[in-house]
Design a protein that fits this description.
The protein is α/β, with parallel strands linked by helices. The protein has helices at about 25-40, 45-55, 70-75, 80-85, 120-125, 145-165, 180-190, 220-230, 230-240; strands spanning about 5, 10, 25, 45, 60-70, 90-95, 130-135, 170, 195-200, 210-215. Zinc ion binds next to strand 5.
């Protein structure tokens, strides 16, 4: 079983009481989390680098690291930490919101936050990090007609590949919205894996187009964080 961590923003949190404030992890906490992983012998990997472990082809102390939405504060605060430790990570970009904001969150009263520009996304990729797709516009896919949903899935891959000049094989369902039909669309669009917002650890027999993740929130303290990452060892011990 392999943990795939799910982060959103790495920065100073919005004022107290702001909705979803908890999804912003403080840069100091992020650095501490990554440093502890390294100290304990773990390597943080992008989905591209993690896939052989998820498929059971390779074994090792690895943890998947993913970021949703492509926030600028991840470029500014997380990228130097990851690069410094030799870790890789995947960020799922919203193709039509480069240099934009999380406008899809506005009606829920969630604070506006800047997203990476094209240049910043290219820097992310040039540092060895992975560019994944989070569709064109961040819609709830099950609500769309099949044609439009398939377009959001496939066209975002083509546009991100063209913009970043890299292969895009990782997908993430906005709001975790998916179905067997939508998973098929992602597969048909040429991706090799997709993550959900379902909580849990990735298992070898999991559908690669429905991989669960472990949320890291502002309130996740270092002990709880390490517990999430080391469940694999705990699990082995339980069986022994
Ligand atoms: Zn998202």
């Amino acid at each position: 079983m392999i943990p795939i961590l799910m982060y959103h923003q790495i920065g100073q949190p919005a004022p107290k009481g702001a909705p979803y404030r908890g999804l912003t992890v403080h840069p100091r906490d992020f650095r501490r989390q990554m440093t502890w992983l390294r100290r304990l012998g773990y390597t943080g990997l992008s989905m591209r680098d993690l896939l052989p472990y998820v498929r059971g082809e390779r074994q090792g102390k690895v943890v998947g690291i993913t970021f949703d939405d492509g926030y600028r504060n991840v470029h500014d605060n997380a990228l130097p930490v990851l690069a410094g430790l030799g870790f890789t990570a995947t960020n799922y970009f919203v193709a039509h919101q480069l240099d934009g904001t999380n406008i899809w969150d506005r009606e829920k009263g969630i604070a506006s936050s800047d997203l990476m520009s094209l240049e910043e996304m290219r820097e992310w990729a040039a540092a060895g990090m992975e560019v994944g797709s989070h569709t064109l516009d961040h819609p709830f896919l099950p609500k769309l007609s099949p044609d439009i949903a398939a377009f959001q899935i496939k066209q975002s891959r083509l546009e991100l590949e063209e913009l970043a000049q890299v292969e895009v094989t990782a997908f993430c369902y906005p709001y975790g919205g998916e179905s067997p039909q939508i998973r098929d669309m992602v597969r048909a669009a040429g991706y090799t894996n997709a993550t959900t917002t379902e909580r849990g650890l990735a298992r070898i027999d999991d559908d690669l187009f429905g991989l669960p993740r472990a949320t890291v929130a502002r309130s996740t303290n270092i002990l709880r964080f390490l517990q999430k990452c080391m469940t694999r060892l705990e699990d082995r011990r339980r069986k022994a």
